[in-house]
Amino acid sequence: MNSDLVVMLTALNLEYEAVRSRIDNPRVHWHQAGTRFETGRLGDGCRVAIGLVGKGNHPAAVLAERAIAEFSPAAVIFAGVAGGLWPSVKLGDVVVASQVYAYHGATSEDDGPKARPRSWEISHRAGQIAQHLIRSEEWRDPSADGDGPTVHFGPIAAGEVVQDSSVSEHARWVLEHYNDALAIEMEAAGVAQAAHLNDALPVVVIRGISDRADGTKSSTDGENWQPRAAANAAAFAVALARQIVTDSTERQERNAEMGPSFRNIATGNARVGIQAGQIFGGAHAGDRADQPVDIVAAIAELRGLVRAAHQDGRLDDDTYKAAEAELDDATDHAADGTKAGRSRVMLALKRLRGLVADIAELATRLSAVIGAVRELS
To answer: What is the pLDDT of residues 122-132, one digit of tens each?
Structure first.
């Protein structure tokens, strides 16, 4: 898994542009089957891959599966627009799906159709991060005028038709069987199913409300609510991607710092003198003060691992050159010894982590070095 990468998918071009406009230096990434993605960064720490899936749950499921297999992300975020179903959910508001209903499942019987719904809940950790972001309002642009949109956390209904009526048979069906749904759209069920089939990969569906699904869609579209709602959804989605990556990488670093656990059992008159897991550098026994971390030596060790990965073909030439540049930057500032110097070292190592995240042993060692540098800061 690439703990610093999130896949972000949209159905419409205006939704895609709303997300893409927030990404630094997007670059085209072609899947071998012809799907066009773009990759880039949200600042220094979070990598993203964005893709356009088109309308409908079926293409959304196929291309979400393709994106997951291609990028091995920490999470998938689906961002775009939807119709609002509750009066309290206003135009321009954002809905984060606590669960997704695939509402077209049913049987047709003599006395009428009977609902056979499927649903997918947001993962616990992703839901906790999303609700923290909603409470803290850290995602809002402080320079924006007014209070901005409200973010709601609740169910979303996903079907195969555009609902633009509050009195049609279709609308009555949704109201009767999915009364708690805050919004209605056409792709979330496909994306949720793709994530479910990949070991329950975290997926978050984020929808800006562009119409009320009540027959007024033409007028709200004419008032440009689609791009406004898409921009609001994209703003929250980007902030959430950063939070998910921060959580994922911090957990990885904590695990690396703790290292593997070992248990030795002595029997008879034997005693366990020293118990240790992996040892980098020399081993010392006895009472002594903790030795300071030699950052320069740690970076040199990382450089050797990077070169070895390049030589055996696990790093391509361009990635290797970029990794060497980050190592050079880290080395230049490691000798500084100041807090500012250590901050620059940390920044270079985090960028390096994004380049080598696919190489497990290198990523693990790098996380341990980052943790050690953090302790010195």
So the answer is: 999 999 999 99
